[in-house]
Write a structure and sequence with these properties.
Order of helices and strands: HHHHHEEHHHHEHHEHEHEEEEEHHEE
Strand content: 15-25%
Number of strands: 12
Distance between the termini: 76 Å
Helix content: 25-40%
Amino acid sequence: MPKVPQSEYGWTPATDADKTQVADELERVIRHPLFQRSGRYASLLRHVVEKTLSGESGALKERLIGVDVFHRTANYDTNEDPVVRFCAGEVRKRLAQYYRNAPDDPIEIGLPVGSYIPLFRLQTSVAEQSSSSEAVGLADSATPEMADTVPEATALHTDPLQVESRPNFLKFWALAAVALVVCLGLVLRSSMHTDPIMAVWGGHLNKGVSVQICTGNPPAEDGSTADSSDVSIEEHYMQARDRVSLATAGAIADISGFLAANKQPFELSEAATNSLDNLRNRPLVLVNANNNKWTLFLLQPLRFHFSESKDNNVGYIVDTEHPNQLDWKVDFNKPYLSQSEDYAILARFYNKTINAPVLVAAGIGSNGTKAAGEFSVSPHYLADLAQGAPRGWEKMNFEVVLKVEVIQGRMGAIQVVSRNFW
């Protein structure tokens, strides 16, 4: 019998046997090197096909896919983070490549442009097709938000051998109405949220003035603050005060990279050689804690600040509202590789002494500093901060205490353990 050609007509897997066929085809495709080498593309394809087979194609929206497949937060900015659109484009290209070399596969899986609902084509005889299931395009379930962008070739189609019944027609419009309400709700909800990145950094993004990033560094071994006139170049570079850890360098790179991406001028300076006069009248970023005197000085009046026990060499973050709570600590006497956690403060506040906004990204240890730096420029982490913030928080001062998992000396997961807005 003649084959049904590759065409615009779709096929709906209606029976369990039909769905098993599609599932088998999905596994064939995913095992191919085009998908096997990339977990993200395979995960996206598997998700959209399995959701469709289970009758949940209404959940195949960009934001929901971002949450379910790529573990984004529920209110992440799809414009700033187009991971779903990018991966869907790659899936379409790879599917086209795959089927160019697989003409004998019984089913073709496609992903129409402008939609995340897959289209299935049955590669079998007309007689077999008629007896197995109803030939109708899966684009029937496309939502109104997708219908405007789906090309003509993949929009609503029915098999010319069949006539759509009135109940199906009414069902389509009922689903369309529900989808429209959901979409409007998502739009309204997203419009109520302030971009957390701009909420945190808005006061520092002023192209008319340079932001100063002031980092801590170890004190000179002999207590001096300047090189002698006869020190060699090698001796100068080998001094402890001119070194920073890789973790601190990572925090500086995250922050300076963010500022550069926003075309914001900035400069780096060292706390040990910086004067209070030099800090005034321009936005300030303070990196590190116990080796940065300006972090300790400017945080001291606030609810959360750093403290150190000189007797037993333990660093703390103090909560002045709960002074007996001393769990946020690092014991510097312990072996480096046995450390399991660090703590950090991320703070943004206006300071009258320097007459400028201040952002602090500082940990008790170096992994805490790295975590605070990463947190400060991450849409993912800042969205979590925004969810627990009071109305109008973008215009308020805040401090956040972070707990940082440490594994074999390296930074792991980050979580917010306390916050304060005023």
